[in-house]
Amino acid sequence: MLAIRLSKAALVGALALTCTLVVYGNVVEPAVNLAFVQHVLSMDTILPDSGIADRSITDPVLQRGAFTLIVVAEALTALLLWIGVALMLARLRAPRGAFARAKTWAVAGLSLGFLVWQGGFLGIGGEWFGMWMSKVWNGQESAFRFAMTVLGVLIYVALPEAGDPDGIRGG
């Protein structure tokens, strides 16, 4: 049981580290990813005859707002994951219910992370703004990899331990 608990905390910690590094990069050198968001929203590299080009957002204020919203969501994801890791580690030897309740923070962070990368990058960026059509500003593959990694860890963390029928609710 201790090995499984350590494993869950370590996997959440690895994703917390990744999210923290993403946020750090966006804060320290925002120009790179801001340019990405600007190009996706302006739809300036999608197929020229695309019928969805009228969805574009070219206002720099709105583009910066979208970038800020993304970074805030990524930062909140990282924070929730770190809280989850700390609580899981603090309750490694606690009864099942206490450890299960500690996983709640990690589940919240993993869920938000999935929403950011699946809903935000793949859904909104990829489908609404046609990012999939761009040969230059297409983050579909990396967003999919991250979303699936987050989803896999979410499923693993949410699984109840042997003899724990209540899952993350605990008892």
Which terms summarize this structure?
mainly alpha, 5 helices, elongated, 171 residues
Q: Say how many strands there are.
A: 0
Structural class: mainly alpha
List unreliable stretches of 5+ residues. none
Please trace the helix and strand order, writing H or E for each element.
HHHHH
Number of helices: 5
Mean pLDDT: 93
Structure overview:
The protein has 171 residues and is an all-alpha fold. It has five helices and no strands. The chain has helices at 2-28, 30-42, 60-90, 96-128, 140-158. The two termini are 17 Å apart.
Summarize the structure.
31% of the residues are buried. The mean pLDDT is 93. Helix 1 (2-28) packs antiparallel against helix 3 and helix 2 crosses helix 3.
Secondary structure elements and their pairing?
Elements: H1 2-28, H2 30-42, H3 60-90, H4 96-128, H5 140-158
